[in-house]
Give the backbone structure.
Amino acid sequence: MKKILSFSLLFVSASLFGQENSTHCSKRTKLINSQKSATLSVAQIAETEKYDVNYYGLNLSMTNTSTYLEGTVEMQAKARTSIDSALFELFASFTISEIRVNGVPVNYSRSNSALKVPVNVNANEVFRIETDYFGTPPDAASNPLGGGGMTYDTSPSWGNHVVWSLSEPFSAYEWFPVKQSLRDKIDSCSIKITVPDSCKAGSNGILENVVNLGNGFTRYEWKHRHPIEYYLISVAVAKYVEHNLFANPIGAPAPILIQNFIYDNPQTLPNFLDEINETADFIELFYDLYGPYPFEDEKYGHCMAPLSGGMEHQTMTTQGFFEKTLTSHELGHQWWGDNVTCASWSDIWVNEGFASYSEYLMLENLYPNEKNQHMTDVHNNVMSQVGGSVWFADSLNTDRIFSGRLTYDKGAAIIHSLRYVINNDSLFFNTLRAFQTEFADSVAVGIDVRNKFMQTSTIDLTPFFEQWYFGEGYPTYSIRYKQEANDLILQISHTASKPTSTPTFTNPIDVRIFRQGQTDTIIRFEIASNTELFVIPNFGTATGSMAIDPKNWIVNKVGTITMDNTIGLTENQVSKELQIVPNPNNGVFSISNLEVIAQIEVYQMNGKKVLSKTYSPNEQIDLRAFGKGTYLVEIQTQKGSRRLKLVSF
């Protein structure tokens, strides 16, 4: 039977043991409030922040063969302060027929994409703006900073004609009048799309009506009653067939509808049927891991469109094909990205890191034979370059926002590492569920994730986030070891791939060690510096076969593992200093070389005191009630105090 245990030995300084206040903020958090726009100036952005959008009502006419559209968009908003105008965006190529405020036509000013409309309202007053417009959205040639807001294309595999929206990060204004601000979620929206009778139109929320207009056109009326980001409002128009199924998560009040609009090509649905139906398994899994599906009173679903991946439009993902990691990634976004959204593009990790880790969690639970190779591939991609941070300064550079290596893979990898550092899956997933509840229908930054885990675990995660979230690079670990009688001495060292940014990684690391005549043992070592020396008393005889991070929890490379008889502690340190014996142990231990009565305090490594007692020489202490793990024992005598680490397993 294999045993996973934590281990570290010898004295720990008070500075390493001390915990920082959970409200501590990194110096980098000063930058998270920066907001940028591809089209608006800072002053114009400030104008948009003078009101909050409560509702969008889109009523558009579209086809599946052209991006041309026409119709009316209603915006309902509430003033944050007394204002005489409201500024929002619509791409300059559209023709505006009329704008009405509270039903009355008004004059307005227009500068490129910026529209300024007179409103004259006091703080907390609600106003309504309706914009009648028509035209053709831009493409990449006419708008290099976007050009993807609305697209027409033909599926290269199935031949179907499709028009679909994709507004992330800055392209919603390319197809409807909008305020593009991550921190202003819309309370609800209505999307009515009139299309030729041969087509269907998919969108967010519940399909409340399908109205045949009797003139060769049909109107699809969708209503979404949950807060939503501007870029998650979507439409997709094509000749679709509808395939519906239900998920039945444990604890759900009712089955959850999974509504799929699939190309009407007769071969498409049979080709993807099994993969589509597996969506129910994924919902049931994430319902357990992350908490209730945020939109379970409406639906989840897919609209097919000829894009190379997927886009997590709220309640109805736009997806080019169906494959389990893609489908689980986009579904994971419904919690991470839709229910809780990054508050700035700097922290897109809140969206993409967790959605990417959802792929691994799906494999871990449903395809366990594939999980190891998946994480190996993730780590290898991260290490294909020596540097790069998950966090970045707020940027208009979409290539950096959606970096596969840093935002997606390193983002997923450090969540995996965080799970290892927490070292308690029940606590880890309980914290994720609590985070979803606390930040539901809202926005968050990476530091919010850190602070939530610091609150629930009481572990100081500031160094972890400084090194892995804000920092760059990865460690390469090496081991030197020697046998002294029945004791094993290890020297664990590491170098950093980007030492000018992150010279030291202080996360723990596992080492698998094989012993003669016994099973292998995985020991967790606490790392505080680039070179650490450890003694494992009464370990037995090591075979010399060792593996660093055998379960691939940490992005790292392995240097050398060699025997070196020159390393070791002094005789005074090994033989005469106070020692925990045995160490590791099964939870019961004593303190050798302690010849006087002492006061003993035992702490978990998160700083929580679990035991305080007066200790007599040779007395045994029993920690089995507190579970296996690493503990710190503080010994106080008249001569002073000392701290020792022990492991119980």
The chain has 13 helices and 37 strands. The longest strand covers residues 51-61. Confidence is low (pLDDT under 50) at residues 1-35, 570-576.
